[in-house]
């Protein structure tokens, strides 16, 4: 039996999303391009997607039961049984040990050290493979193989599964994923790609990780808000959020302009460091700040002027998949599985 279906689960602290995807070789209007070394260029159609609250206070067994029910519901609705599914991918908000497939850290503590994949197999009464991955890594993977990487391939001819790319989420924190030739750089213990906790400024702002000057302390949405707030100390009650700061910038409000210029300096420094280590084809940005077009203005030029190898011209791209990157990244994990 040819297995052409995939299940993707995006498990977050507040919501869990499940998508059922059908892989085809023919393009259609609603299909998404997916390129992998094993299967070449294919197309994915999202047949159904559903969301439930994580309800983590109910505890691990209850949450796993809900995830299992979510998978069963979505299959039943489409008249499929679990054995027609090639595999299940699951994105979780923490580092995953690459061989033990166990979540090591993260704010959603109920999943830490649990055998999530095995437990879900038991609940679904199946032996189909279940792959676990860190959510920021999945953002990077899905953008490379199905999103920004497809556009990059169209312009350059370099296939998504041959690209080197770094996904950066500029949100409440700063998350990242590094993808080289469709492989996620996980490192020995799954801690690879935690680029938000690399130091931008020696002895800079203290970070909760124990270091000072981490990128996250300068590039997250809250850090931009805090930076702006220090400029309007006599008017602190009106403290705006990141989106409002960008709106003020577009109205040429001087403090907002100064804040964004400062923010971009931090970003250029961050991307320069990463380029000098990885020399990527491109960066792809996600998270709230990535939706602001001002961020991209002259960024590549400024970057090129600072990086060590002047032949490197990494592009800085906006994400293509938006909110869907997590669930799509999870669903395509079985396609790049080496086993
Ligand atoms: Zn840190």
Report on this structure.
- The protein has helices spanning 60-77, 116-124, 135-146, 148-156, 216-219, 221-229, 242-250, 254-278, 299-306, 325-336; strands at residues 5-11, 15-24, 32-36, 40-53, 85-92, 130-134, 164-170, 174-180, 183-184, 282-286, 315-318.
- It is α/β, with parallel strands linked by helices and 339 residues long.
- It has 2 domains: 5-139 and 323-336, Nucleotidyltransferase, domain 5; 163-319, Nucleotidyltransferase, domain 5 (2-Layer Sandwich).
- The strands form 2 sheets. Strands 3-4-2-1-5-6 form a 6-stranded mixed beta sheet, with helices on both faces. Strands 9-8-7-10-11 form a 5-stranded mixed beta sheet, with helices on one face.
- Helix 3 packs across helix 10.
- The protein starts with a strand and ends with a helix.
- The model has no long low-confidence stretch (mean pLDDT 94).
- It binds zinc ion (ZN).
- Zinc ion is lined by residues 197, 207, 209, 211, 214, 216.
Helix and strand arrangement:
Elements: E1 5-11, E2 15-24, E3 32-36, E4 40-53, H1 60-77, E5 85-92, H2 116-124, E6 130-134, H3 135-146, H4 148-156, E7 164-170, E8 174-180, E9 183-184, H5 216-219, H6 221-229, H7 242-250, H8 254-278, E10 282-286, H9 299-306, E11 315-318, H10 325-336
Parallel strand pairs: 1-5, 5-6, 7-10, 10-11
Antiparallel strand pairs: 1-2, 2-4, 3-4, 7-8, 8-9
Helix pairs in contact: 1-2, 3-10, 7-8, 8-9
């Amino acid at each position: 039996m040819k297995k052409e279906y995939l299940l993707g689960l995006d498990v977050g602290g507040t919501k869990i999303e499940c998508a059922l995807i059908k892989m085809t070789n023919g393009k259609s209007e609603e299909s998404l391009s997916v390129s992998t070394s094993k299967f070449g260029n294919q197309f994915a159609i999202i047949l159904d997607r559903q969301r439930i609250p994580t309800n983590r206070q109910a505890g691990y067994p209850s949450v796993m039961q809900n995830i299992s029910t979510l998978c069963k519901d979505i299959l039943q609705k489409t008249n499929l049984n679990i054995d027609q599914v090639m595999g299940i991918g699951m994105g979780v908000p923490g580092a995953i040990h690459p061989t033990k497939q166990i979540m090591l850290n993260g704010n959603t503590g109920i999943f830490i050290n649990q055998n999530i994949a095995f437990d879900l197999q038991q609940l679904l009464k199946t032996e189909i493979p279940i792959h676990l991955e860190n959510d920021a890594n999945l953002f990077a993977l899905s953008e490379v193989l199905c999103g920004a990487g497809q556009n990059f391939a169209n312009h350059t001819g370099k296939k998504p599964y041959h690209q080197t790319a770094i996904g950066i989420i500029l949100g409440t924190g700063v998350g990242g994923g590094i993808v080289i030739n469709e492989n996620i750089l996980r490192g020995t213990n799954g801690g690879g790609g935690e680029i938000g906790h690399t130091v931008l400024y020696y002895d800079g702002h203290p970070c909760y990780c124990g270091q000072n000057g981490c990128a996250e302390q300068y590039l997250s949405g809250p850090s931009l808000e805090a930076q702006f707030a220090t400029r309007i100390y006599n008017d602190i009650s009106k403290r705006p959020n990141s989106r409002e700061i960008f709106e003020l910038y577009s109205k040429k409000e001087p403090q907002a302009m100064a804040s964004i210029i400062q923010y971009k300096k931090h970003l250029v420094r961050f991307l320069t460091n990463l380029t000098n280590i990885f020399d990527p084809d491109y960066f792809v940005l996600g998270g709230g700040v990535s939706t602001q077009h001002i961020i991209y203005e002259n960024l590549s030029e400024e970057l090129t002027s600072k990086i060590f190898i002047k032949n490197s011209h990494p592009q800085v791209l906006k994400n293509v998949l938006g909110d869907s990157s997590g669930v799509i990244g999870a669903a395509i994990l079985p396609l790049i599985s080496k086993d």
